[in-house]
User: Which sequence fits this backbone?
């Protein structure tokens, strides 16, 4: 590995490793103090497993062995870590303490006391221990040596003063300290030989801090916009005041009074200050734009920061197993959000280790199979719209599907009959489940059932997805799909026709509940009178095409003052739920073509809302579009709306489709998988079924077969809506009875309307 690259990666590893240790301690704290295992258990196991993998790939052997030893200590108790014996807990804490000085010195010679203590903890033979210290001076560590912290710690009840000592009649409980807070920012000291100004010096900035800067910049923009509006109003009031003073002077007989003269002088001073205030606000706006641009640049990094480390690390890992691996990467020039990159990095470390452990064979074995002795691993990154697709592919033996089946049966996870009925994609999905491994023995690289589960959780944590494909004898391919950007924004949450929507706070000029006399007829429709002039009025219901577009002033509707880049609008809505902080997730292919939706907003409570685009709303209102629903949907009798059975396991996709179908005039019955759909089918009596293919419990293929075999619903129209875009899936769906097939990446509202009209025509 290039020395300069390795030095950079080691500095990043030191910072990330210390954060991982802190998260492991925090998870242990939560488990022990609450005495209830939950997500913290999986978190700490994943963090240790990832730390071990990173250490092995960067050739930091003592951190590698110590992390592996910690996994071994916890493995027998993983199902009930909340009841971890104190002797084991004490030993694990000691190991975590020993990791810190080893991480701080990663890539350099470890401090002798720390190295010796770690080897003793592991029970390894070690060099002669330094002589025990007999005086305080002798015990002082030499410069650069990190002292080893004692592993016995005391926890007092949270109500006790932090500095209080236990009374003689109290027995301190051995346990954990409070969770170590993640540092807001950490500067990693340069390695030996690096100059402070060297271009490779890395300053690690916490992603949270970058997001905070961007969030504050957004709030500042909102305040500046309010100040500009107030200044405009002040200017108008000053002019009205000048007119009133002028009338008073003209109406007064004789010379103006002293008060009028003073008032005129003060008004002239105010009118002279106003242009300077406008100029200052304009300058502040320019600087704010620069700040926003800087925050955006800081939030995005090139993929090469992670990708470049993988080939040499994989080669090193393969050498330790007597294998040969060549890793090629594509797409390193692409830039993505740091938050996404952090999760992607975790996933790629596990996938590359997985490729070396499972996809690579010894040179002699590959030669006997007629393959090149070097295993080829390809990592390809492609940007598609606002999404990133990452493929990690090897040319190894492929997945052993029979081994997966045997493991399911041996561990009594499924019955033999259920395993036999599992479609191949659902069978392989078990590889991503917690604690699932086809290996019966544990090695330093695999066998714990943690790696692929960590991949799934890392990708799903940023609203992504992962799947695995394999051909026996030809290799295995992991496909990751994730957003390129996740941004924290302030949003206003709305509920409309049962669907949750969000509007970015930066596009809001205010939330109003105006009286009826605040509305007036305008040249092109209803307007709302405001201090800044009349605003055209439109209803969200009308713009979305779900019903009546007119606004009734007498009902005192909620009205949002939308401020777009070129026009403004008064938008009437059903209800306002309040402002929230949310993560912005870019729209995937299913929503990318929707005329009004810019993506998703996910709040801290994991509530997902469709994020509306303010400029698009204003533009659509200006076009005078009152109804978007096709006439075919509007002409149906409202007393007997056709029912759609919508079968989709993704909550976000199902919610979006249900809202769209509702606007088109359909009644929607939702199901989360094939089995759920079959249970709802008789009561729903749908006119059509729209189903995904890849779902848990029962997939779409099996659902179609069961519907076609039902005497009552054998001719029921079925539309497939799936991410699968290959001929095999389309052919199979058609053969078992699907009437139409839509690929989600090609989805649009017009096409759905056309397909529904076509499949329902025989029933009309």
Assistant:
């Amino acid at each position: 590995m290039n020395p300069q690259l390795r030095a950079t990666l080691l500095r990043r590893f030191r910072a990330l490793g210390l954060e991982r240790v802190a998260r492991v301690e925090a998870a242990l704290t939560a488990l022990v103090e609450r005495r209830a295992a939950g997500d913290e258990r999986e978190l700490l196991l994943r963090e240790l497993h990832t730390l071990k993998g990173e250490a092995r790939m960067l050739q930091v052997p003592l951190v590698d062995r110590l992390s592996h030893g910690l996994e071994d200590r916890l493995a027998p108790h993983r199902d009930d870590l909340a009841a971890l014996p104190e002797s084991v807990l004490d030993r694990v804490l000691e190991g975590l303490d020993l990791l810190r000085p080893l991480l701080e010195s990663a890539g350099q010679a470890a401090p002798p006391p720390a190295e010796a203590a770690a080897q003793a903890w592991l029970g390894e033979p070690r060099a002669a221990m330094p002589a025990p210290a007999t005086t305080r001076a002798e015990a002082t560590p030499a410069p650069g040596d990190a002292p080893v912290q004692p592993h016995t710690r005391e926890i007092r009840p949270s109500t006790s003063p932090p500095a209080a000592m236990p009374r003689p009649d109290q027995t301190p409980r051995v346990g954990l300290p409070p969770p170590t807070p993640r540092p807001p920012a950490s500067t990693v000291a340069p390695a030996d030989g690096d100059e402070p100004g060297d271009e490779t010096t890395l300053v690690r900035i916490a992603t949270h801090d970058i997001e905070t800067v961007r969030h504050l910049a957004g709030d500042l923009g909102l305040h500046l916009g309010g100040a500009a509006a107030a200044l405009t109003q002040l200017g108008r009031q000053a002019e009205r005041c000048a007119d009133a003073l002028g009338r008073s002077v003209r109406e007064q007989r004789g010379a103006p009074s002293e008060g009028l003269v003073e008032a005129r002088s003060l008004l002239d001073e105010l009118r002279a200050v106003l242009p300077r205030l406008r100029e200052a606000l304009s300058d502040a706006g320019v600087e704010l734009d620069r700040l926003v641009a800087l925050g955006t640049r800081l939030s995005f990094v090139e993929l090469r920061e992670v990708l470049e480390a993988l080939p040499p690390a994989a080669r090193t890992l393969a050498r330790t197993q007597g294998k040969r691996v060549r890793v090629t990467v594509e797409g390193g020039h692409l830039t993505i959000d740091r938050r996404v990159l952090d999760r992607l990095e975790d996933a790629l470390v596990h996938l590359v280790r997985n490729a070396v452990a499972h996809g690579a064979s010894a040179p002699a074995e590959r030669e006997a199979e007629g393959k090149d002795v070097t295993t080829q691993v390809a990592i390809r990154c492609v940007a598609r719209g606002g999404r990133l697709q990452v493929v990690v592919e090897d040319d190894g033996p492929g997945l052993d599907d029979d081994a997966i089946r045997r493991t399911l049966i041996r561990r009594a996870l499924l019955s033999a009959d259920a395993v036999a009925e599992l479609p191949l994609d659902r069978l392989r999905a078990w590889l991503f489940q917690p604690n699932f491994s086809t290996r019966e023995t544990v090695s330093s690289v695999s066998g714990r059932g943690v790696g692929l589960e960590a991949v799934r959780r890392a990708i799903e944590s940023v609203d992504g997805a992962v799947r695995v494909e394999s051909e026996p004898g030809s290799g295995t391919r992991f496909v990751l799909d994730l957003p390129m950007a996740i941004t924290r924004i302030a949003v206003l949450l709305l509920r409309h026709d049962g669907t949750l929507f969000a509007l970015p706070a930066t596009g809001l000029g205010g939330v109003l509940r105006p009286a009826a006399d605040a509305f007036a007829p305008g040249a092109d429709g209803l307007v709302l009178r405001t201090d800044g002039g009349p605003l055209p009025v439109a209803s969200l219901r009308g713009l979305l095409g779900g019903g009546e577009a007119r606004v009734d002033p007498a009902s005192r509707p909620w009205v949002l003052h939308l401020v777009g880049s070129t026009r403004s609008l008064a938008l009437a809505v059903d209800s306002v739920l309040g402002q929230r902080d949310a993560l912005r997730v870019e729209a995937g292919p299913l929503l990318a073509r929707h005329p009004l939706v810019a993506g998703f907003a996910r709040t801290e409570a994991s509530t997902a809302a469709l994020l509306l685009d303010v400029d698009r709303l204003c533009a659509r209102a200006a076009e005078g579009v009152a109804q978007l629903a096709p006439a075919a949907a509007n002409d149906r009798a409202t007393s007997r709306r056709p029912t759609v059975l919508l079968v989709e396991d993704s909550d976000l996709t199902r919610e979006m489709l249900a809202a769209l179908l509702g606007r088109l005039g359909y009644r929607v019955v939702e199901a989360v998988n094939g089995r759920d759909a079959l249970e709802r089918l008789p009561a729903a009596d749908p006119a059509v079924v729209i189903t995904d293919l890849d779902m848990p419990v029962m997939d779409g293929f099996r659902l179609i077969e069961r519907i076609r075999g039902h005497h009552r619903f054998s001719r029921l129209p079925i539309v497939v809506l799936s991410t699968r875009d290959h001929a095999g899936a389309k052919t199979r769906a058609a053969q078992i009875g699907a009437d139409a097939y839509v690929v989600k990446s090609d989805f649009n509202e017009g096409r759905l309307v056309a397909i529904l009209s076509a499949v329902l025509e025989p029933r009309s």
Summary: Residues 210-301 form one domain. The chain is about 45% helix and 20% strand.
